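[Automated response] Your request has been received and processed.

Submitted sequence:
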Amino acid sequence: MRAHFFFITLQWLLTVPPEAPESNEIIFDAFALREAANSFIDALCSDKHLSSFYHMGDWYEEKFFLSDHVEITRKLDTIPICFNLMEIFAVSPYPTFFCLAPLITAQLAAIVNRCELTLYKNDAMTKAMLDKIEKVLRLISKAQILTNIMPLIFEVIRRGTMHECSSILIELWRILTLIRPMEEKNLNDLMSELDLQMHESPRGIVQMPECPSFQLLKIMNLIVQRNAEKMSDLGFMIISLFPQEPEEDAWEQGPLFPVIAVNDPLKR
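Generated structure:
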């Protein structure tokens, strides 16, 4: 009950009243979002020197900071309300979602490394791992990123192997790095720009950029071909999402990403 009242109060503090009293429209206060995001990220990541910038590198860059990412992930797992707070920022106007970049990066890094660290990469995903992945995908979907195919992505992961899962997450991670604001700015500067936009026109804010999903669909299609017996019903759904005239062969057989886990000496 206390958590329920906490989130109601927080949402009230992060929004401004609509112009029409009878309207159900939700208009966020960008300045309040900035302050809340600063406080939330600093509480979890300040000692890791990750909270000042929203920079999101890919796996091959971020794996060298795996120990930090694992510790952040443990904090998220031990504080139940963290994901509820992250959902508030995820549904807020672009680019508020990318204020969560240190937390999203930490979770993806920990999951990918766990998938690749095992000796049994052809094993199915465990329920505990699927629960973690589902939380991350839900946050990304709430930010209006690949919303139309997110259930399909999770279904392929659920039926796939550890290595196939990491290949999908690596590509999803790459997409996030492509659609984030490209300039390296301090979190305060980034949200201050949003604050100005919201004051000029509350509804004229920048929309989430279009996601380049073709490569992700190709990987999912390849996984379905490798697991025809247990994924045959997913093939048509993936094919229907291909562009009518793709620039490259979507049916070309090839290996999945050679994702490499961080070994023990590097982790230490």
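Summary generated for your ticket: The beta strands are 15-16, 27-28. Residues 2-17+28-267 form one domain.
If you did not submit this request, please reply to this message.
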